[in-house]
Automatic annotation (TrEMBL):
Co-factor requirement: Mg(2+)
Recorded family membership: Belongs to the SELO family.
Record-given protein name: Selenoprotein O
UniProt keyword annotation of Disulfide bond present: no
Keywords: ATP-binding, Magnesium, Metal-binding, Nucleotide-binding, Nucleotidyltransferase, Transferase
Recorded superkingdom: Eukaryota
Organism: Wickerhamomyces mucosus
GO MF, any single term: AMPylase activity
Database matches in HAMAP family: SelO
Entry's Gene Ontology cellular component terms: mitochondrion
Length: 610
């Protein structure tokens, strides 16, 4: 192999910093014990210790576990972009070793690496759910890309039971696996921070009972870190001060290694009437860590809102500390702009609706602040004091001082979260409208546009494409691009009083928006298309398209036909560049690009069943 060529997965250097720096649960206390158990003939102990769900009796950041061997493991497809980002040889997808590892048929281990499941807890729909953890995930090892300097941890999802499976079966069905495999790469293609998908494999003969018996699958996926807010919830639940500090130190030393240094906190909340707030003059590394986590999540949520992405289940165990879109279940993209839409059919109170996503993530970040209350409250004088590290603070006066400092940092962070969110939102939304840079007052244009789109039922993302292709001189007069065909018909030929009122209301709204927007465009020398074409995707995977692909893959995988899946991967991974969509299945491509207003296809909801 050429020294400059990317290595195969077999030859790639592998590490596992999470298990090198953090402590496992005590039933399998070391890699050597895990290897000894795996290589033994004691199948009963293997089942109990590797695969039997249980409440951990003592703290531990993870549990050693191994993927479950199934009747058959059939590799289907890999993402070429993911292989490149992992610095892996593209041609190796045909190698048996690669296919065996990414499908869970075999796994790699040595004296420093062994598969494990991460422990975490979480608040689900606002209520604490106790111990959760990787119930059907096995973390394998880390891979480094020397060209980018990034290190990613590879894991399998749907690979069998662990100690954290609770009442579940450790499986993932093909339906949900196809959706997650594609959406991870779609979000990456949109430049929205996200976990990534490497490959998808099917497990013929292995079924999971959901609404019916469904064929199972395994995804191999990767991220720079799989730590989530729920990881901190776990140590808070166990009242494990030492473990929580160890996790925080791991994050500082191995994940958020380049924290921004803020000389002055411009987000200081000053309220003379609030006795619970104090001015924060000096910061510690844990303060900086918390602020970094807040800022990263604020940026990601802003991107979701601009592109109309809805996660559907924003629990703390699904919230990444580095702001990655994570754990996709009932996700969707807005087909129409409806702020109250939740893609989760079980979200009856709309807690995780499109409109509520920013507040839901801030709620989760507040829970993180509460988990870190001792580390945030200590301040520079106490944080490295040996007595404090060992025993915490003693005495009511010291505790009150600590709580006030922590509360002040969390309140400050709330102001920072809001500021960073709107900074990214305003800039990115403007780019979708072809504005070179954000100017104060542009948000009025955005608000007027979104108010229109809530009434016109226009395809949300298609609207931006239609607008960017509009001649500048017609922006003031062509109102059809704002409306669905049905609304345009009612607008153009009102038949009753309701239609006439709609016509009057929309005409006024169109005029206000168009005049403001047109005037704003005249302020810049560059054409809006030159900007917006880099930010408005030509394609997004929709629910009805997923249904096409899932059905085709389910019907044809035995013959090795993954053509629909491959086509969807190409289009989703390269949403701005149709030259990378391939020459195959052009009729299907046109169908998927078509604008649909079929009530049975748009704004679909899913359950959490996967």
């Amino acid at each position: 192999m050429d020294n400059m060529s990317p290595p195969t997965l077999k030859l790639a250097q592998k590490t596992s910093s999470f298990i090198a720096h953090l402590t496992p649960e005590p039933l399998i206390p070391s890699i050597s014990k895990a290897i000894e158990l795996f290589e033994s003939d004691d199948n009963g102990s293997k089942i109990v210790l590797f695969h039997t769900p249980r409440q951990l009796s003592k703290s531990g950041a993870y549990q050693f576990s191994v993927p479950t061997k199934r009747k058959e493991h059939q590799y289907l497809i890999s993402s070429p972009i993911s292989l490149k980002d992992l610095n892996l040889d593209q041609s190796q997808v045909r190698d048996q070793y690669y296919q065996d590892i990414v499908s869970g048929k075999e796994f790699y281990y040595d004296d420093k690496i062994f598969p494990y499941a991460q422990a975490y807890a979480g608040f689900q729909f606002g209520h604490f759910a106790g111990q959760l953890g990787d119930g059907r995930v096995h973390n394998l090892f880390q891979l480094n890309n020397p060209e980018t300097g990034k290190t990613y941890e590879l894991q399998l999802k749907g690979s069998g039971k662990t100690a954290f499976s609770r009442f579940a079966d450790g499986k993932a069905v093909l339906r949900s696996s196809v959706r997650e495999f594609i959406v991870s790469e779609a979000l990456n293609g949109l430049r929205i921070p996200s976990i990534r998908s490497l490959s998808l494999s099917i497990l013929p003969g292995t079924y999971a009972q959901r609404n019916s018996a469904e064929t199972c699958a395994v995804i191999s996926r990767f991220a720079e870190s799989w730590i989530r807010i729920g990881s901190f919830d776990y140590y808070r639940m166990r009242q494990d001060r030492i473990g929580l500090r160890a996790l925080s130190d791991y994050v500082l030393n191995n994940v958020l290694t380049e924290l921004p240094i803020f000389k002055k906190n411009q987000y200081q909340v000053i309220d003379p009437e609030d006795d619970d707030l104090i001015e924060i003059e000096d910061s510690t590394r844990y303060d900086q860590m918390y602020r970094a986590i807040v800022r990263l999540n604020a940026r990601t949520v802003a991107y979701w809102q601009v592109y109309g992405f809805i996660n559907g289940v924003l629990n703390t165990d699904n919230t990444s500390i580095i702001g990655l879109s994570l754990d996709f279940g009932p996700f969707n993209f807005l087909d129409k702009f409806d702020p109250n839409f939740s893609s989760n059919s079980e979200d009856e109170l709309l807690r995780y609706s499109y409109e509520n996503q920013p507040s839901a993530i801030w709620w989760n970040l507040t829970r993180l602040g509460e988990s870190l209350i001792e580390l945030l409250g200590a301040g520079p004088d106490l944080i490295d004091d040996e007595k404090f590290i060992k025993n915490g603070v003693a005495g009511e006066v010291e505790k009150e001082k600590l709580i006030k400092r922590a509360n002040s940092i969390i309140r400050n962070a709330g102001k920072e979260y809001k500021s960073i969110f709107f900074q990214h939102y305003n800039e990115l939304f403007g780019k979708r409208l072809g504005l070179k840079e954000y100017k104060k007052g542009d948000e009025i244009i955005y608000e007027k546009l979104l108010s229109i789109l809530t009434k016109t039922e226009k395809d949300y993302n298609k609207f931006f494409l239609d607008l960017q292709n509009q001649d500048l001189s017609k922006i003031l007069t062509n109102y059809e691009i704002f409306m669905s065909p049905e609304i345009f018909q009612r607008f153009s030929n009102p038949e009753d009083k309701i239609d006439k009122e709609l016509q009057t209301e929309l005409t006024s709204s169109f005029k206000e928006f168009s005049e403001l927007y047109h005037a704003r465009l005249l302020e810049q020398s560059i054409s809006p298309f030159e900007i917006s074409s880099h930010y408005n995707p030509l394609f997004l995977p929709r629910s009805w398209i997923f249904e096409d692909v899932i059905q085709h893959t389910s019907d044809n995988y035995k013959e090795g036909d993954t053509s629909y899946l491959s086509k969807l991967l190409k289009m989703s991974s390269n949403p701005y560049d149709p030259t990378k969509w391939g020459d195959e299945l052009k009729d299907l491509e046109l169908k998927w690009l078509g604008e649909t207003y079929d009530i049975g296809k748009v704004m679909q909801q899913c359950s959490c069943s996967s």
